[in-house]
Write a structure and sequence with these properties.
Elements (H helix, E strand, L loop, with lengths): L3 E3 L3 H11 L5 H19 L5 E7 L4 E7 L3 E8 L6 H7 L4 E2 L1 E6 L6 E7 L7 E6 L7 H12 L5 E8 L1 H10 L4 E7 L2 E2 L5 E2 L5 H6 L3
Parallel strand pairs: 1-10, 4-5, 4-6, 4-8, 8-9, 9-10
Antiparallel strand pairs: 2-3, 6-7, 11-12
This protein binds 1-O-pyrophosphono-5-O-phosphono-alpha-D-ribofuranose and uracil.
Uracil (URA) binds next to helix 6.
């Protein structure tokens, strides 16, 4: 799967093990989501284009590299995606942020849109969509559909935990999208929850259950 990257870095895997535990507190869960997101962001931005620049150090002129090409946007899928934003912005402080609000209908498991606000120039930006969970893939596919309708061409999807069903759905609908995961789990259960997963990411980030 050329466009699917499962990040097996030891730090990511260690933090993910703590994140999954049902005994991890809301405070620690939130912190870990941020830490893992920062590490994933480092990998997912590895191929950003750079250009050579000259910088006068106190000693001499150094040939350096700075980011070039399109400006970036970070698009969290509400709610749980919000937990990934701060860590990304710490690494990419000039990124603009858009929000796509989707929730899964508890009966059909299909995504329902309830909010959307994107940067005005979104079509000119390289976009990173963030959401901790990729289950059926319905939310990810709907968010990417929506971004493409708004002219986005360069889209990367970042999920902390995915599963084969979600990966297949994104690949089928959007084969051009690069997908970064910290883990690809075994399967979905009858409630379309990822097994073994970590439970409901939104509830665990915000302490709502
Ligand atoms: C969760 C998760 C994803 C979605 C994944 O959000 O954060 O957005 O489910 O499932 P899917 O791949 O089957 O679409 P949820 O709908 O529970 O909303 P929340 O973030 O507000 O809790
Ligand atoms: N959403 C979650 O938060 N967790 C799952 O396992 C599936 C969807």
């Amino acid at each position: 799967m050329a466009n699917v990257h499962v990040l097996d870095h030891p730090l990511i895997q260690h933090k993910l093990a703590i994140l999954r535990s049902k005994n991890t507190s809301v405070k620690e869960f939130r912190e870990l989501i941020g830490e893992i997101s920062g590490l994933m962001c480092y990998e997912a931005t590895r191929n950003l284009p750079t250009k050579e620049v000259e910088v006068a150090t106190p000693v001499a002129v150094a040939k350096c590299r700075r980011l070039a090409g399109k400006k970036l946007a970070i698009i969290p899928i509400l709610r749980a995606g919000l937990g990934m934003v701060d860590a990304m912005v710490e690494l990419i402080p000039s990124a603009k942020i858009g929000h796509i609000g989707l929730y899964r209908d508890p009966e059909t498991h299909l995504p329902v849109e309830y909010y959307c606000k994107l940067p005005e120039d979104i079509e000119n930006r390289q976009v990173f969509v963030v959401d901790p969970m990729l289950a059926t893939g319905g939310s990810a596919v709907a968010a990417i559909d929506f971004l493409k309708q708004h002219g986005c061409k360069n889209i990367t999807m970042m999920n902390i935990i995915g599963c084969p069903e979600g990966v297949a759905a994104v690949q089928k609908a959007h084969p051009d999208v690069e997908l970064y995961l910290a883990a690809c789990d075994e399967k979905l259960n009858e409630h379309a929850y990822i097994v073994p997963g970590l439970g409901d990411a939104g509830d665990r980030i915000f302490g709502t259950k």
